[in-house]
Amino acid sequence: MAIFTAAAVQMRSGTEVARNVRDMETMVREAASRGAIYVQTPEMTGALVRDKDARANAFTTEDSDAVAAAAAALAGELGIHLHIGSTAILRADGKLANRAFLFGPDGRRIASYDKIHMFDVDLDNGESWRESSAYEAGREAVVAALPIARLGFAICYDLRFPQLFRAEALAGAEVLSVPAAFTRQTGEAHWHALLRARAIENGAWVVAAAQGGRHEDGRETFGHSLIVDPWGRIVAEADHAEPGVIVAEIDTAAAAAARAKIPNLKNARDFAVRPVEASGAAGLRGAAS
């Protein structure tokens, strides 16, 4: 069991990686100055680039990535666990991965995670997204055993797939991470409800650093970075879409306590689904008109 201060960094990443790295560094330093030893940045910390050609020019391999290099140096300098929510990484096969990184207090990379679920949707306000046309989906869930907590990884649209979080909780995760770039429309409708649900369902802390506001590439994200306790209570929130930092104290014993009160992880049972087809429509009865 451990007690520590966690921070979520809310950004408004643009199309220039170098500028986004500078913004990230400034806010991570602020988080550390406020006592945070685990700091999380949002999805696509490195850049939000919708244009295909511009995207190809903005991103590079992991060994050459400016975000990863800056994060490793910053984690080592500040002596913190620095979780880059994600950035786009060019894979060896020429495809892009939406990849998260976790660096330890010695500056070394502890873990990485490639976003599993691709955001392929058509919204009723006319927005259309096909993340799978630009990124290759990941295939493995990740739980990192840190000195401060067991941390489960997810990125943005993964939030809508509770089986991922359940698998990580069953693997021991006490803190679930959901760095994101939720659209304003979907965020207004579902962001708070889904994050609180994942915390409650799994008796786990949830830390969700978000992108917020109108970005250079034209998209608009919801912001409202959150930290939620294992009972589903919001303990810290950026109640807006502006860049900023939120912090909260995390006690991993609270996860154990929530799971003891509601032992649904232990009580779950395997079951089969039996489809039943009706042979005919039921008749309706009512008074004659």
Q: In sequence order, what are the helices and strands, one letter per element?
A: EHEHHEEEEEEEHEHEEEEEEHH
Our count of domains comes out at 1
Query: What share of the residues does DSSP label as strand, in percent?
Result: 25-35%
Major sheet, described briefly? 6 strands, mixed
User: What do the pLDDT scores average to?
Assistant: 93
Low-confidence stretches: none
Please name the CATH architecture: 4-Layer Sandwich
3D shape: globular
Spatial order of strands in the largest sheet: 5-4-3-2-1-16
CATH homology superfamily name: Carbon-nitrogen hydrolase
Output the structural class.
Answer: alpha/beta
Class in CATH? Answer: Alpha Beta
Helix content: 25-40%
Q: Counting H and I runs of at least 4 residues, what is the number of helices?
A: 7
What is the rounded Rg? 20 Å
State the end-to-end CA separation.
69 Å
Count the E strands. Answer: 16
What does this structure look like?
By secondary structure, the chain is α/β, with parallel strands linked by helices. The protein has a single domain (3-267), classed as Nitrilase/N-carbamoyl-D-aminoacid amidohydrolase (4-Layer Sandwich), CATH 3.60.110. It is built from seven helices and 16 strands. The protein has a six-stranded mixed sheet with strand order 5-4-3-2-1-16. A six-stranded mixed sheet has the order 8-9-10-11-14-15, with helices on one face. A hairpin with a 5-residue loop joins strand 3 and strand 4 (96-103). The longest helix has 19 residues, at 184-202. The protein is globular. It starts with a strand and ends in a 22-residue tail after the last helix. The model has no long low-confidence stretch (mean pLDDT 93).
